[in-house]
C-alpha cells in the first residue's frame, strides 16, 4: 500500500513515518507543505492522501484556519479528479460546546466560532463531493517531536522552570500521535483490501481527563523519572484555570465505531505518556553521557 501524507513537520506525519518504517506492507511519501498537485498524484498514484489536523483551531489565527480549510478543499478536488481517497484528520475542538455524553460520529459539529464553522463547511463538501473519504476526528494530540506535539512543549516548559496553565473544567481524551498513526495505517490497509468502510470515525485515547490533570500527571511522572536518574531539576508548576463556571465542558469522543468496523482499540493515554517519557529520558541520558 502506498500513502501520501502532507505537512512533513507535523507530529502525525512523523509518527506515520515511524510506523511505516516498521512495516513491510506500507510505503509512505511525505510532502513538505499542505498541498499537492494533479501531476504529483498522477506520478505517485497513492492509495490514499492523508492530511494531518490543524491542532487547537480555536486558538489559531483566523487566517491560518482559513488557509487550512482552503488547502484541504483544494486537495479534495485534486483527489476527486484523480479518484484517490482522502483522509482528513480533524481536531475535536470542532465540537466547541461539548456534550454531556460521549459524542458519536453521526453528530455533525455546530460550532459558534467562525473559524470552526469554516472547517465544518469543508467537511460538508468532502462528504458531499468525495465518496471515498475518511474524516477522522481526534482528541488533543501529544507526541515528543514535530509541530503540534504538545507533550514536547510541556516537557520543555517544565524543564525550563516555566508555568503551564491548563483548564481544570475542560474534559477530553488526550490522544497519542503514535497510536493514531498505527490506527490509520491499519484502517487504510483494510480499505486497500476491500473493506469499503468510508465515512467519519472518532479516534481518541481512553479515560477522559481534565486538561489540568493531564498536565499535572505529566509533571509528576517527569519529576519521578528525573529523580530516579539522580537528577535534581526545579521543574515549573502547573496552574489550574477555570473557564466553565456552571459545569465542566466535556469534549469526549465515542470511539466505538472504529472498533466495530476496523477492530481498532484505543490506547490508554497514561501508558502512551509513560512510554514517551521513558524514551525522552533515554535520549536525555545519552546526550549527557561523557563522550
Automatic annotation (TrEMBL):
For this protein, the record's Pfam families field holds: RmlD_sub_bind
Q: Which residues cross the membrane?
A: none
InterPro entries the record matches: NAD(P)-bd_dom_sf, RmlD-like-bd
Domain of life from the UniProt record: Bacteria
Q: Which residues form the RmlD-like substrate binding domain?
A: 62-279
This protein's name: Sugar nucleotide-binding protein
Amino acid at each position: 500500500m502506498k500513502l501520501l501524507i502532507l505537512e512533513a513537520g507535523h507530529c502525525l506525519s512523523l509518527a506515520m513515518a515511524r510506523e511505516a518504517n516498521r512495516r513491510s506492507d506500507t510505503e509512505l511519501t511525505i510532502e513538505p507543505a499542505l498541498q499537492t498537485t494533479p501531476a504529483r498524484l498522477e506520478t505517485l498514484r497513492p492509495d490514499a492522501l492523508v492530511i494531518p489536523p490543524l491542532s487547537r483551531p480555536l486558538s489559531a489565527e483566523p487566517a491560518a484556519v482559513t488557509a487550512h480549510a482552503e488547502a484541504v478543499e483544494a486537495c479534495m478536488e485534486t483527489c476527486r479528479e484523480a479518484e484517490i481517497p482522502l483522509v482528513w484528520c480533524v481536531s475535536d475542538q470542532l465540537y466547541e460546546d461539548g456534550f454531556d455524553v460521549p459524542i458519536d460520529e453521526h453528530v455533525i459539529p455546530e460550532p459558534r466560532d467562525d473559524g470552526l464553522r469554516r472547517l465544518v463547511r469543508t467537511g460538508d463538501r468532502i462528504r458531499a463531493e468525495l465518496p471515498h473519504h475518511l474524516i477522522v476526528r481526534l482528541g488533543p494530540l501529544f507526541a515528543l517531536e514535530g509541530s503540534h506535539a504538545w507533550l514536547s512543549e510541556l516537557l520543555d516548559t517544565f524543564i525550563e522552570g516555566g508555568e503551564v496553565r491548563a483548564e481544570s473544567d475542560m474534559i477530553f481524551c488526550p490522544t497519542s500521535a503514535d497510536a493514531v498513526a498505527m490506527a490509520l495505517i491499519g484502517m487504510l490497509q483494510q480499505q486497500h483490501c476491500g473493506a469499503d468502510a468510508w465515512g467519519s470515525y472518532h479516534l481518541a485515547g481512553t479515560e477522559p481527563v481534565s486538561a489540568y490533570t493531564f498536565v499535572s500527571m505529566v509533571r509528576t511522572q517527569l519529576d519521578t523519572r528525573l529523580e530516579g536518574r539522580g537528577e535534581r531539576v526545579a521543574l515549573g508548576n502547573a496552574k489550574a484555570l477555570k473557564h466553565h463556571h456552571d459545569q465542566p465542558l466535556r469534549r469526549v469522543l465515542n470511539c466505538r465505531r472504529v472498533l466495530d468496523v476496523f477492530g481498532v482499540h484505543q490506547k490508554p493515554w497514561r501508558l502512551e505518556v509513560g512510554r514517551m517519557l521513558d524514551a525522552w529520558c533515554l535520549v536525555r541520558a545519552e546526550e549527557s553521557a561523557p563522550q
